[in-house]
Design a protein that fits this description.
This protein is an alpha+beta fold and about 140 residues long. It has helices spanning about 1-10, 25-35, 60-70, 130-135, and strands at about 45-50, 60, 75-85, 90-100, 105-115, 120-125.
Length: about 140
């Protein structure tokens, strides 16, 4: 996963100017969703997209992403931030979550792209096999 972080750190959306100083506070606010169990105060762009390994298609739009995060956040416990970093286009964190009352531990990378202080995309990277096995799928 570390190689992925190095590659991601150099990516920017073409034609957009980014401010690196905005990334860490926005990442901290995003991570707080998994402690407070609410995404209502996230600085999301109206056209934000959320992509994850088990989603059949991206979730698009501020309201839809908030509903999704508010549904998921109470079922996971953020146990560790292994590493986090900023890039000119956003921030990324390698996280450890406990699911199913701590019986299942998942390592994930959450990458957010930021424009004008708002999250324009959230992308999760993880190996879904342990989750699928635990659910009997």
């Amino acid at each position: 996963m570390r190689v992925f972080f190095l590659i991601w750190a150099g990516l920017c959306l073409p034609g957009t100017t980014y401010s690196q100083s905005n990334s860490q506070p926005v990442l901290d606010t995003y991570l707080s969703v998994f402690k407070t169990n609410t995404a209502d105060d996230l600085p999301l762009a109206d056209d934000v997209t959320f992509l994850g390994a088990l989603l059949p298609e991206p979730i698009v739009g501020r309201d839809q992403v908030i509903v999704f995060l508010n549904r998921v956040a109470p079922s996971v416990q953020l146990t560790q931030v292994k590493q986090a970093f900023e890039s000119p286009s956003g921030a990324c964190a390698e996280l450890v979550f406990a699911l199913q009352d701590g019986d299942l531990i998942m390592e994930e990378a959450h990458c957010i792209r930021i424009r004008d202080g708002e999250i324009v995309s959230i992308r999760l990277y993880f190996d879904p096999r342990p989750l699928l096995e635990a659910s009997g799928t």
